[in-house]
Amino acid sequence: MLFALTREISPRFAECQLTHLPRVAIDIERARAQHDAYEWALVELGCTIRRIDSAPETPDAVFIEDTAVVLREGAVIARPGAEPRRAEVPAVAAALARFGLPQHELAAPATLDGGDVLVVGRQVFIGASARTNVEGIDQMRRLLEPFGYRVRAVPVHSCLHLKSAVTAVGRDTILINRDWVPADAFAGPTLVDVDPDEPHAANALWVAGPGGLDLRGDGVVIYPAAYPKTGRRLEAHGIRVRAVEVDELAKAEGGVTCCSLLVKFGRS
Ligand code: CIR
């Protein structure tokens, strides 16, 4: 059983945090339509959607990934690096609690955004970014290593989160922009490079099967239609791509991983 926890777009989405992009007008209705279509793509791949309400006080709430890290063993409730985003956390913790997973909250002075956490098998790569500090990485290490995970800190620069620069696109394959993150930190998996014309193209959401239309059971990547050259590179590696339009969400520095938290039960 695969659930995708998502969050409604706030009426004050246009007041989102911005770090690397200039503020431009956001068409909130278009953003909502793109978010709906993103959820439908997840449904096609076998996910059951659980959507949490949002609120004016939480402009960035749609980017739910940053508020928690969900593993099979339980959920880590994050402490986002941008102070105004901490108001998003309690509703997500409550929603995750309804799945009955054990929960652990990171404690101050730790800061960590879920967008900085990339899990590949039993390896957990954590971006040392402007949002995630050393204490956040240390608390994750102390929590996860007893479960057999190996936690590694990875420096990131020129982008918001680790997963702006590198994401999993298969069980043992990652998509990377080597200009923003050191490739030698990821020894082991096959690396697929973003097309040089598409530096923002490394954020892909791998939905592992079986389920829905994913009849072969080896997963499909939900991927922004805005990066066709990198999309073709993924397909050339045998990776199935489900394109979605997310350019309105991208104006708020959001990608495809950040709009859901996947919660898996059973063998899928
Ligand atoms: C922020 O700056 O926090 C939001 N405007 C964007 C967060 C995107 N999160 C993600 O990619 N994991």
Number of H- or I-type helical stretches: 6
- According to CATH, the fold-level topology is L-arginine/glycine Amidinotransferase, Chain A
Quickly name the level 1 CATH class.
Alpha Beta
Strand order of the largest sheet: 2-1-15
Radius of gyration: 17 Å
Helix content: 10-25%
Termini Cα gap: 7 Å
Q: Spell out the CATH superfamily.
A: L-arginine/glycine Amidinotransferase, Chain A
On the 0 to 100 scale, the average pLDDT is 95
* Domain tally: 1
Task: Please tell me what the overall shape is.
Answer: globular
User: What percentage of amino acids are in beta strands?
Assistant: 25-35%
Number of strands: 15
The assigned CATH architecture is: 5-stranded Propeller
Structure description:
- With 268 residues, this protein is an alpha/beta fold.
- It has one domain: L-arginine/glycine Amidinotransferase, Chain A (5-stranded Propeller), CATH 3.75.10.
- 20% of the residues lie in helices and 25% in strands.
- It has six helices and 15 strands.
- The protein has helices at 28-44, 89-97, 134-144, 162-165, 228-236, 247-250, and strands spanning 2-7, 47-52, 68-71, 74-77, 103-105, 117-120, 123-128, 150-155, 166-170, 173-176, 190-193, 205-207, 220-224, 241-244, 261-264.
- The strands form five sheets. It has a three-stranded mixed beta sheet with strand order 2-1-15, sandwiched between helices. Strands 3-4-5 form a three-stranded mixed beta sheet, covered by helices on one side. The chain has a three-stranded mixed beta sheet with strand order 6-7-8, covered by helices on one side.
- Strand 6 and strand 7 form a beta hairpin.
- The protein starts with a strand and ends with a strand.
- The mean pLDDT is 95.
